[in-house]
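Reviewers of the previous submission asked for a worked example of the structure-prediction workflow described in the proposal, so we include one complete record here. The input consisted solely of the amino acid sequence. No template or homolog information was supplied to the procedure at any stage.
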Amino acid sequence: MRVVKNPDERKQEIVDAAIRVFARKGYEKTSISDIAKEIGISQGLCYRYFPSKEAVYDAGIDKYAAYIVRQNIQRTKLEGKTLKEQILLMSGKMGEYASAEKGQQELYELFHKEGNHKLHDQLYLRVGEKLIPFITEVLEQAKRRGETNISDPVATAYFFVYGQIGVLMSYEIPEAEKAKRIQDCLIELLGV
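From that input alone, the workflow returned the following structure tokens.
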């Protein structure tokens, strides 16, 4: 018997199934057929919602990145803090971001599994993308309060986020120094 579901519900069901299969088998070894079998639907129905395995994966990584950002923004109490205090609370703390990731165990396993460095790096970049609007607003508020005189909060937010990711992904900078060096650099560059 055919089960008709709301399109958004079906799409989410496919993404959730894909995440489970990706976590179990790895991205490379997973096929659309595997994802369809996971929830007992046809491959054609998967293709109705997603043109490829990559598109399902992108939807999954997007969902996970949004979850990580949301959890960390809620966890970090920034209300009433100066820009400098916010930088010290937020910057260079990707290790702390990982604690929020563990709330989605299957996704955590997928992105942190040995040999999935490329997937993990893609997640880093997507989390950065999701952080841009938040960081832009933080910088605009600081500018209105007179804490910084940056002329372009949007470009500064991109630099703030992706500059950190570059340092955090660096193998040349010792892990123990990364957070401090990021914080010092941002405080100096923003003049706070």
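The two ends are 64 Å apart (CA to CA). We consider this example representative of the routine output the project will generate in years two and three.
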